[in-house]
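Help needed: design a sequence for this.
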């Protein structure tokens, strides 16, 4: 794109609940025209998007980039390369880092690495409590201009009093709290879902109440505080019902789930660390409830919870491996193949869940419209591919989707009109 002009021809443009075959003209980093037919001059590069979905860049509000502090697992450079490979142009980074982003100074350490090395937009979360300890609430007012929201992801805030105080401060500043909902008193050393597979293979299970119980608790705190509250990585039927009830009450609550929870059950698990994450993949009943949740609008966001670890950390079986799997490079393809192609949801709904809703809820901005920054992803929906971790740009290789045959591979990602991934 030396000329600064790119014409994306004949792709299926998906936006605002509609799909239409159209051309998209990008010039100097901006979307300048979307129309049924756009003429190209001699200085315009052309990309044939026939047989492809053209979307605004995907947005993932739940990504672990591991830097600073854990660069043996992932770096902001490798994580954002993986994101671009998957069609993402905006990601929100989780705060289980060293140092934790619990002060303006500590967020600045991460922001400096982002400014120097990120391929796409990275919006960092700040912690809810100092050091993610669950005890002292951070200086919310000071941190607000420097973060996309507040979360202690990786651990839940166990104290009701601390959570209420955090909600009051965040509400006063117009912020959003993203909650890792986990009652640690109900874990009992569990590491996969407390269901059929765990019983059959003598594994310690994690009950669903450990997730939905804190949501029920926090619903009442949201009612008291008025805080905008987003539920991270929902996996259980009880969580869907708790959020549905909160929305019936008109409370400002939203939620996300992940591709693995929507497409797998605990009976798909194998004796391998690549099937271990927190919360765990649960039962067929839970999966059905999550699907109904995205269909009826209870769950508004699909996020990956991309959580890379070293091969050694993931190579110790279900009991011994670290919690977390990678997902940025397979997310759209898994959703397209297993939900869109099979008629569970429309492609328009998939794009709503993966870019439009997260951008709205977290005030990320951007849309596939004339005059907007040219953050664009193009997905080939006609050519199948097999998930092969040797092709991943992430340092993390542990994925439950290894070997799956999928459609919807990202073939081009633009960030601000610049090519950040091209197949």
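Sure. Designed sequence:
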């Amino acid at each position: 794109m030396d000329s600064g002009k790119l014409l994306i021809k004949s792709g299926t443009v998906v936006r605002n609940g509609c799909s239409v075959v159209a051309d998209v003209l990008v010039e100097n980093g901006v979307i300048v025209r979307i129309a049924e037919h756009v003429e190209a001059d001699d200085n315009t590069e052309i990309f044939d998007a026939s047989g492809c979905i053209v979307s605004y860049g995907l947005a993932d509000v739940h990504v672990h980039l591991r830097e600073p502090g854990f660069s043996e697992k992932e770096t902001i450079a490798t994580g954002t390369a993986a994101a671009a490979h998957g069609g993402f142009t905006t990601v929100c980074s989780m705060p289980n880092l060293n140092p934790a982003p619990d002060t303006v100074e500590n967020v600045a350490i991460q922001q400096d690495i982002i400014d120097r090395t990120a391929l796409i937009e990275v919006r960092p979360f700040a912690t809810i409590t100092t050091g993610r300890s669950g005890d002292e609430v951070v200086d919310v007012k000071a941190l607000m201009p420097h973060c996309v929201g507040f979360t202690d992801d990786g651990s839940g805030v166990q104290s009701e009093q601390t959570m209420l105080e955090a909600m009051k401060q965040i509400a006063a500043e117009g912020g959003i709290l993203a909650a890792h909902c986990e009652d640690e008193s109900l874990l009992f050393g569990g590491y996969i879902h407390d269901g059929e597979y765990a019983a059959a293979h003598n594994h310690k299970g994690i009950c669903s109440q450990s997730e939905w119980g804190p949501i029920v608790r926090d619903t009442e705190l949201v009612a008291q505080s008025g805080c905008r509250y987003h539920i991270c990585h929902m996996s259980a039927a009880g969580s869907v019902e708790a959020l549905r009830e909160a929305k019936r009450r008109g409370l400002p609550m939203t939620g996300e789930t992940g591709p693995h929870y929507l497409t797998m059950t605990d009976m798909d698990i194998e004796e391998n660390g690549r099937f271990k994450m927190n919360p765990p993949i649960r039962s067929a009943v839970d999966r059905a409830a999550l699907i109904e949740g995205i269909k009826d609008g209870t769950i508004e966001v699909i996020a990956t919870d991309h959580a890379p670890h070293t091969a050694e950390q993931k190579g110790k079986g279900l009991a011994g491996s670290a919690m977390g799997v990678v997902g940025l490079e397979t997310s759209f393809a898994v959703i397209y193949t297993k939900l869109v192609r099979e008629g569970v949801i429309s492609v328009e709904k998939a794009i709503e869940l993966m870019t439009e809703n997260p951008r709205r809820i977290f005030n990320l901005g951007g849309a596939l419209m004339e005059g907007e920054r040219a953050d664009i992803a193009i997905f080939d929906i006609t050519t199948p591919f097999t998930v092969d971790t040797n092709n991943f740009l992430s340092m993390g290789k542990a994925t439950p989707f290894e070997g799956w045959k999928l459609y919807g591979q990202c073939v081009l990602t633009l960030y601000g009109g610049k090519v950040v991934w091209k197949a």
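DSSP finds 13 helices and 19 strands in the chain.
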